[in-house]
User: What shape does this take?
Amino acid sequence: MLHAVTSGVILLVVWLLWSGLSTPYTDHFHAMLLEFGIASCVFTVWLSRRMKILDREGQPHFNTLRYLAYLPWLLKEIVVANIDVTKRVLSPKPDISPTLITVKIEQKTDLGKVLYANSITLTPGTISLYFDEGNEHLTVHALSKEGAEGLATGEMGRRCLKLEDGT
Assistant: This one.
């Protein structure tokens, strides 16, 4: 029930923001429009509960603070990797050494594994290729050996695991 309430509140806030709450010169708050907005949010939550997709993994609202702490670190990694890739590609003698590596996955949930794989792919110069049969290892293509070594340190994996279990 708590997931339904938090999902409903989040949907309603997002709906209000998208309906013109952020613009002071709009007159979007007529009774009928508000009723339709509330009804659509209630219907969406009801449908999600009926489909049984409101759970901790599918609706991780309670990890919001952890995600907000992870985002600046990920953005910094993206910028650093962007600069590295740009230097490598624009150099007169490109220092590119494509490398395939396999990293161990310590995440327990599907959401944690996907978050880790997507974090790798978002970082320029690396891309997640595939999980092995048991979802215990992830094969990654890196543009350079240094990029592969940076990933092999496991820092990104540890941070994603912290998002998952809070330790």
Notes: Helices lie at 2-21, 31-50, 64-90, 110-122, 145-152, 155-165. Residues 63-165 form one domain. The chain has a mean pLDDT of 84. The first helix runs from residue 2 to 21.
